[in-house]
TrEMBL record:
One Pfam family named in its UniProt record: NTP_transf_9
UniProt organism field: Streptomyces atroolivaceus
Domain DUF427: 18-105
UniProt-recorded name of the protein: DUF427 domain-containing protein
Lineage, top ranks: Bacteria, Bacillati, Actinomycetota, Actinomycetes, Kitasatosporales
Gene3D superfamilies hit by this protein: Domain of unknown function (DUF427) (2.170.150.40)
Length: 111
């Protein structure tokens, strides 16, 4: 856990099955995601690269910086810019998310 001026981030295993779908196409599905909980933000699931259809994604030129997580890189689909992101070199406090993919919309699947 990291806390800076009231801002807290935790990362840990999520005991859920999650799926990322766009226009009916499954882009990712994982039974071993990490969940990142951050003050003021919705819970985000970070999926391991082996559970993501990276072959469907195109790298984007977009880069963003988070003072708590580091620099993010983005990927797109035709008609869906910057749909997914990852932190290739995250800050030490969130090192577990390194190279995991996060989608803006991820559904928890009831098994």
């Amino acid at each position: 856990m990291t806390s800076l001026t009231g801002h807290t981030i935790t990362v840990g295993p999520a005991a859920v099955h999650v799926r990322a779908v766009h226009d009916g196409q499954v882009l990712a599905e994982s039974r071993s995601p990490l969940v990142l909980r951050e003050t003021g933000c919705p819970d985000r699931y970070y999926l391991p690269p082996e559970d993501v259809r990276a072959d469907l994604l195109t790298p984007s030129d977009t880069r963003t910086h988070c003072p708590f997580k580091g620099d993010a890189s983005y990927w797109s689909l035709p008609g869906a810019a910057d749909l997914v992101w990852a932190y290739p070199e995250p800050k030490e406090q969130v090192a577990a998310i390194k190279d995991h993919f996060c989608f803006y919309r991820t559904d928890v699947v009831a098994d």
